[in-house]
Specification:
The chain is α+β, with helices and mostly antiparallel strands and 391 residues long. The protein has 18 helices and 7 strands. It starts with a helix and ends in a 7-residue tail after the last helix.
């Protein structure tokens, strides 16, 4: 088997488990909640064989493909979320005396789109005694928000969030020490170091009621205004709408959409040309896959290779019409996905990575393709007709 994919498989395995760092994360989680694991956790346990390795046997490219699509093991995800919950509970107790705040998770970990066993967790710290709204919304026009409180006259949203950030920073430094708390980051307070098995980013923010939320009253339509330290301003996005929309198409595909997103993220991480992929983010990758037909990526039991073949075809078709590609918007409808033309070339690099993987997997699973026989099927046809049984 190609040394190239053997090396990439090794990189994938290390990324999914985190090595000794992964064992430390699991051990800490077990100590925090002894109900989670009945047995002790060691480095060897954290590197235990996963199902994708058993299913593929000694086929390196096939094993890489299955592992790249598979969720990070739940025990790692739960442990990472427990770290964020520890920070949340601490701040809840400390901020309650001065500022009213609530906490929500955003990003790849709660969506199960992360590809690393040790993944950063974003924890929104939302000031609840202050929120803004669009005057164009139906609730605002009906006067349902009432008059602006006199004590808030002349107070900018950024001022309100600077107060929240400063108070949170003070409590976090008191608890974890200056060396573990990064107060210089532009949009978050970064927590790392000896006290943390994964990095936790605390993001000061407040709620924003836009036109769509005022119409729908759907909590996932609420906007979040985040404080930007270096510019002393706020920027608004819609992380819960994004999560809702991606989940909706993933449900329609029986998990095929999220499997495809994880696959592309892993291909980018292990690409020989990853130095040329500088602008296309994980967010962009997920947004592009969101626009693919979920039925084309429908994941039946053992049919991951079929999804890979369809993913290559659909992405290639998407990039073929560049004018249409440039018009695609993110799932939360806040911006165009391709907001820099260089991203088009970067997408094509990842498609070539996927094409190379598909051809190698076809070679591993069909003797005629491996011999490059005149009668050999197309790689996509082989993958479509090849099922890898579950174990």
């Amino acid at each position: 088997m190609s040394t190239n994919y053997a090396n990439k498989l090794h990189s994938l395995q290390a990324r999914r488990t985190g090595g000794t760092g992964g064992a430390r994360l699991l051990s800490k989680h077990m100590a925090m909640d002894s109900r989670v694991y009945a047995d002790s956790v060691s480095t060897r346990d954290s590197l235990a064989t996963e199902s994708y390795q058993v299913r593929a046997g000694n086929k390196s490219a096939t094993s890489f493909a299955l592992g790249a699509m598979q969720e990070v093991e739940k025990r790692f995800t739960d442990a990472a979320l427990a770290e964020a919950d520890r920070v949340k509970r601490y701040l809840q107790g400390k901020l309650r005396s001065r500022l009213k705040a609530e906490f929500e998770l955003q990003g790849s970990v709660p969506m199960n789109l992360h590809i690393e066993g040790i993944s950063d967790v974003d924890l929104l710290c939302l000031r609840t005694d202050y929120r803004t709204y669009s005057p164009k919304g139906e609730s605002a026009k009906a006067g349902k928000y009432g008059s602006w409180p006199a004590e808030l006259e002349g107070v900018e949203p950024a001022d309100w969030l600077l107060e929240l950030r400063a108070d949170a920073e003070r409590h976090l430094v008191e608890c974890y020490g200056e060396s573990s708390v990064n107060t210089k980051s532009n949009k978050s307070i970064g927590l790392s170091g000896p006290s943390f098995s994964v990095k936790v980013d605390v993001v000061p923010a407040h709620w924003y009621h836009g036109v769509e939320y005022q119409r729908s009253k759907d909590e996932s339509d609420k906007g979040v205004s985040i404080y930007v330290l270096n510019e002393h301003k706020t920027v608004t996005n819609y992380p819960f709408r994004y999560m809702r929309e991606v989940k909706s198409v993933d449900d329609q595909s029986n998990g095929g959409i999220k499997s495809s997103i994880r696959l592309l993220k892993n291909l980018r991480a292990d690409s020989d040309a990853k130095g040329d992929i500088r602008l296309l983010s994980s967010y962009d990758i997920a947004a592009l896959v969101y626009h693919l037909d979920p039925q084309q990526l429908f994941l039946n039991e053992g049919s991951e290779l079929r999804v890979m073949a369809r993913l290559e075809q659909r992405l290639a078709a998407l990039c073929h019409d560049e004018a249409a590609l440039m018009k695609l918007r993110t799932p939360d409808d806040t911006r165009y996905i391709i907001n820099a033309r260089e991203k088009v070339a970067e997408i094509k690099i990842i498609i070539q990575e996927l094409k190379g993987l598909n051809e190698m997997v076809a070679e591993e699973n069909d003797a005629s393709y491996a011999r490059k026989s005149h009668f050999a099927q197309d790689a996509g046809e082989i993958l479509t007709n090849t099922r890898i049984p579950l174990v």
